[in-house]
Amino acid sequence: MYVLDEDNAHLYSGRNKGVPQKKVVLIADDDNTTRRILSHYVQKMGYATVEAKDGDECIQCISETTFDVVLLDINMPKKNGFEVMQHLKAHKFSMPVIMITASYDVPNAVTCIKLGAYEYLTKPLDIERLEIVMRNALAESCLKNQVQELQKELKNRELFSNIIGKSAALKQTMEQVRQVMDTDLNVLILGESGTGKELFAQAIHYGSKRKNGPFVSVNCAAISNTLADSILFGHIKGSFTGADKNHIGFFEQADNGTLFLDEIGDMNSEVQAKILRVLQERKIRKVGDKSEKNINIRIISATNRDFSQAIKENLFREDLYYRLEEFLIFIPTLRDRAEDIPLLAKYFLDEFAKANNIEPLQLKPEALKSLEHYQWPGNIRELKNAVQRAAVTRKGNTIETLRAASVPDSTPAGISEKKLLETLTEPNVPTGKSDDMNSYSLEAHERDAIITAYRASRGNLTKTARILGIGRATLYRKLDKFGLEHLKTSSPFIQ
Fold first, then answer.
1. Which letter does DSSP use for residue 295 in this model?
2. How far is residue 425's CA from residue 427's CA, in Å, rounded to a whole number?
3. Both 256 and 338 in a single domain?
């Protein structure tokens, strides 16, 4: 393997632990004497050195750590300098490489530059010239890195311009987005209603190689089984009654771009099967058409549902889930990024003032203080509504109070979901005569449990289902069954 000079071993080992250290130079040469002499002079210049005796060892060193400069001999066994440079270019290594050879040869020099070498030097080396070349190479590399960081920052500002916040939870999600945007993986975004799932989907699209293609958003919950084929895949004129012209479906509209399937968890099971087939074959067929058409799309889907429960209850196809979940992203709730509330409130307030052509409004710190412990079941959407209400009902240009939607706090402070669930599992049966106990049915207990959980979750149906240990679709069916369908849209006041 490679040899590390003993005098600088502590510098090299500390480098990978994030400790600021000297610049490290990799010296790759098949002649042991040349390596040692070069290493001696490079260390005197103030650098740490690592040695490699052939091309394979050089590539292994570079794959295991980061070097600031590489001194690379052209004529080496196993892999020569040209082959090493081709490997570095193919794998997009960006450190400066100074090529070294026994004699000057114009074709070789041209080849080195084309492969990305910073400079081409001949033996015997002029040490003073080598020092100048290395210093210039490091300065240019540092400048390039600074430019790349600035470009990355500008790109992030552009992509995440509508995503406000500085919390650790939000930064972690944004980093996940950056990691996946340059790939072509299908992405599944999980998050509660109102957390901004579509904004993150747009950031992924506009940061990807498909950014010049279309971004098509589809609300899956609104697609009925009878119209699914036409809506998703299109139809040709005369294919059915009322089809008076050709129609391009969502999948074809998103060709060479991104299709965002919002609320994918609420999609009908029969429609799920049709989506799965398209993802497997990458082909669509319009209603009434005899031929199929190839499509090139990336799928980003989003849901606020618990897929594990939905799959168990056969409400969602497991095979489709794994097609969609090639990369998973969790969007934090507003209560998990409470430190972002002041920034978001100020943003929404400025947005309101601009949209309504009024003077900038001010928000007193006291206005937010009362909401520090509020759970925000509606997340960012609810906060925006609260800010807008405060702006409309303000007196003057300063908002002194900011109130969330009128939500009763029916759950004792500090009670956990686990404790609440334990309470719900025991029927609140009247005490006394056995006739009273018999009259209290299991259905009545179930209805009371749903109401209690609904109050505890402050009207958040996703959280209500989680407390009860059931899926959202199951909860909807039970609401209909017990005459509580008004809870799907009403405020969480329950008589």
1. -
2. 6
3. no
User: Which helix (H) or strand (E) is 23 found in, with range?
Assistant: none
* Contacts with 71 (C-beta within 8 Å, 6 or more apart), sequence order: 25, 26, 27, 28, 29, 38, 42, 98, 100
Q: Which helix (H) or strand (E) holds 299?
A: strand 298-303
Say whether both 471 and 426 belong to one domain.
Answer: yes
Closest CA to 311 of 473, 180, 459: 473
- Check whether residue 8 and residue 139 sit in a common domain: yes
* Domain annotation covers residue 318: yes
372 and 452 fall within a common domain: no
Yes or no: say if 253 and 217 are a contact pair by the CB < 8 Å rule: no
Q: What is the pLDDT of residue 409?
A: 41
CATH number reported for the structural domain that contains residue 455 in this entry: 1.10.10
Q: What is the pLDDT of residue 187?
A: 96
Domain assignment present for 11: yes
Axis crossing angle, helix 442-456 with helix 472-481, rounded to the nearest 10: 120
Contact 90, 117 (CB under 8 A): no
Residue 203 has pLDDT above 90, yes or no: yes
Per-residue pLDDT of 217-250, as tens digits, reads 999 888 888 888 889 999 998 888 888 888 899 9
What is the DSSP annotation of 432-476?
S-HHHHHHS-HHHHHHHHHHHHHHHTTT-HHHHHHHHTS-HHHHH
Across the beta sheet with 97-101, the strand order is 3-4, 48-52, 24-28, 69-73, 97-101, 119-122
Q: How many CA atoms lie within 13 A of 428 on its CB side?
A: 11
pTM of structure: 0.60
In the numeric block, the tokens 């930064």 are attached to 171
pLDDT of residue 456: 78
Largest Cα separation within the chain, whole Å, is 107
DSSP string for 147-176: HHHHHHHHHHHHHTTT-----HHHHHHHHH
Instruction: Please say if the pLDDT value at position 209 is more than 80.
Output: yes
Q: What is the predicted pLDDT for the residue at 445? A: 67
Same domain, 86 and 20: yes
Domain final residue, candidates 291, 323, 355? 323
